[in-house]
Amino acid sequence: METPQGQRLICHSRGKKSQGLVGDRVLWQASTDEGTIEKIEPRRNVFYRQDEIRTKSFATNLDQILILIAAEPEFSSSQLSRALIAAEAEHIKPIIALNKSDLVEPFARAWEWLRPYRQMHYGVLPLSLKQSSEVDHVELLKLLHGKTTLVLGPSGAGKSTLINLLAPGALAQTGEISQALNSGKHTTTSTTGTGWIPTRPPR
Ligand SMILES: Nc1nc2c(ncn2[C@@H]2O[C@H](COP(=O)(O)OP(=O)(O)O)[C@@H](O)[C@H]2O)c(=O)[nH]1
Ligand SMILES: [Mg+2]
Asked: What is the pLDDT of residues 2-22, one digit of tens each?
């Protein structure tokens, strides 16, 4: 939990099980060394993570999601589609970005493969996050400015690189949420790392 002053506290919920989601706004009360969540404010939307087996609430109060994929490693079309559907269902704006444009051949292949998405109203933003010149990211930075954005994409796409670029040191501070997409009995080999970053300007 983070206070309006930017102080971070570990808070427990009143009930046995935490009902909180990433992005929740809460009313809390200080206890001796930490805090208790008294109430979760109404949510303006909820982003769900879904697979064949279950649906799990994942993050809330979002302005948009950034689906970050890259020329390499290959990405799964079903994960891309699921993310788009989950966003549309909650009226959250999706942005698709294809990273690693410096890898010319795989990038051209992926770009071609994304043609249907480019032809829908989404568009796809080409990126090379490793090239640290601001000019390359100015478009993305404009889209993220002042917005609460959930960044998701497969492992290796460049999420950590992006977060470091936006807020050097943020990874050490906030940590990163990583989890298997299909954990449980019918586990597949696909794993997705997801990082959440508030892209609002610092207070
Ligand atoms: N060639 C190339 N590599 C990149 C680019 N952006 C990130 N990478 C590299 O891709 C790898 C995975 O990036 P990382 O940010 O850790 O991905 P994450 O798993 O989504 O957090 C790292 O070795 C990065 O240095 C890029 O634009 N071009
Ligand atoms: Mg990472």
From this structure: 888 888 888 888 776 778 888
Q: Which of 68, 102, 129, 159 to mutate to test the pocket of ligand 1 (most atoms within 8 A of CB)?
A: 129
Residue 128 in contact with ligand 1 by CB distance below 6 A: yes
* Class level of CATH domain 44-199: alpha beta
CA angle 63–22–48, rounded 5-degree value: 70
> Does the beta carbon of 102 sit less than 6 angstroms from any atom of ligand 1?
yes
Tell me if the pTM is above 0.85.
no
- Which residues in the chain are classed under CATH 3.40.50.300? 44-199
Residue 137 has pLDDT above 70, yes or no: yes
**Which residue bears the tokens 């930490």?**
34
Segment holding 134, helix H or strand E: helix 134-144
CA torsion, ordered 10, 54, 159, 142, to nearest 10 deg = -90
**Residue 180: how many CB atoms within 10 A of its CB?**
13
Residue 183 has pLDDT above 50, yes or no: no
Residue nearest to atom 9 of ligand 1 (CA): 158
- Give the DSSP H/E element, type plus range, for residue 65: strand 64-70
| 3-class state of residue 90 by DSSP | coil
Kindly report, residue by residue over 19-51, the tens digit of the pLDDT.
Answer: 888 899 999 888 877 888 889 999 999 998 776
